[in-house]
């Protein structure tokens, strides 16, 4: 009875109110329609254009990591396979297995890789010569020795100045010419040859297998760069990692393992490492159940990571994204390389000729053993994407007032009606309490 009295009084007051939205909400028969009169949601995204002059880190590798022009490499691999995979040209042999690189990495880890001095033919940055001391060496499981330009370190690991991009354009960027090996000494288990290039933020190590782009022999490839920086809002807006240089920023084994790989956290490192570990764990009992007749078959089974992406969904909760990160949009253009005259120029250089294991070198062999690569910005601007709160407390009050006025018909004078509603409800409450007290006293006296 008392509850009905409250609701009836409230309805009588509200239906005569000048606040137009509230009577409409009260008269609406469905809950969804009532909510429509009260709530409104806005999502805002801001994109800012600004200039960043720091040139990115550029890493490159040879697609075929082992240098088989080295006699020791040929001898060791031929002994392991029990066949001479280069000289016999036996293309139906077991050496042509597509998993052979992984098998050799596991069983013959001391095979000699391509060195920077053998791969680097020429280097220019901002139209000035650069040399082997401008590169830092890294190791990739799939691609052997890889080398990074503008990492802030040299081949011995010592710090060197970070280079800036002063002007856009090809002449002011990085220009490399690389030797990728004599074509006849490319192994048959690799169905491609050339170089792998990764453009990345220098504060993070490159992900060669995931982010690398191939450039082909006999061509000059331009990488036209545009940097994109992203700044995400942390909790409660998202679960991104604020301080990626803190090993304990996120409570996850996969997070800490990814951090330990490079000294800083990166989600792509975390997802890759976590997925490889889980795939290997699943493969191990399966491979142990098979009666393999050779070590190569067992290693091929253990290294079967073709379904790696199936584990990403499992690893995502353990690998949060960084709040601040950047990447590079890359546009490619390609032309033929080298020209007839430049091939003659290369062959006139004894240092270049010494890279081949034979004397008579044809122009076709030159074309199939060199690549040219250029990386540069096309403009002085880069994109910056920031997530910003929809509103702070002050703007929230202003927005709320505007929404109330727009959708509910609230004005300054309408607040007097709100106080009237509250006062009427208070009178009902006090009157009910007084009546209840009087009734209780009458009952008590009658019982006495």
What features would you describe in this structure?
By secondary structure, the chain is α+β, with helices and mostly antiparallel strands. The protein folds into 4 domains: 1-17 and 414-448; 19-43 and 392-410, no CATH class; 49-70 and 112-233 and 325-386, Acid-sensing ion channels like domains (Acid-sensing ion channels like fold, Sandwich), CATH 2.60.470; 242-322, no CATH class. The protein is 37% helix and 19% strand. The chain has 16 helices and 13 strands. It has helices spanning 2-15, 21-27, 31-36, 71-81, 100-107, 116-119, 208-211, 253-262, 267-288, 295-302, 312-315, 340-347, 350-353, 363-367, 393-408, 414-447, and strands spanning 46-50, 57-62, 120-125, 128-129, 135-140, 144-149, 174-179, 194-200, 213-216, 219-231, 324-336, 370-377, 382-386. Strands 1, 3, 4, 7, 10, 11, 12 and 13 form an 8-stranded mixed β-sheet that branches. Strands 5-6-2-8-9 form a 5-stranded antiparallel β-sheet, with no helix packed on it. α1 (2-15) packs antiparallel against α16 and α8 packs across α9 (267-288). The radius of gyration is 35 Å and the shape is elongated.
Brief characterization of the structure:
The protein is α+β, with helices and mostly antiparallel strands. The protein contains 16 helices and 13 strands. α1 packs antiparallel against α16 and α8 packs across α9.
Strand content: 15-25%
CATH topology of the largest domain: Acid-sensing ion channels like fold
Mean pLDDT: 80
Question: Number of helix segments?
Answer: 16
Helical content band? 25-40%
Order of helices and strands: HHHEEHHHEEEEEEHEEHHHHEHHHEEHH
What composes the largest sheet? 8 strands, mixed
Which shape, going by the Cα principal axes? elongated
Annotated CATH homologous superfamily of the largest domain: Acid-sensing ion channels like domains
Q: What is the domain total for the residues?
A: 4
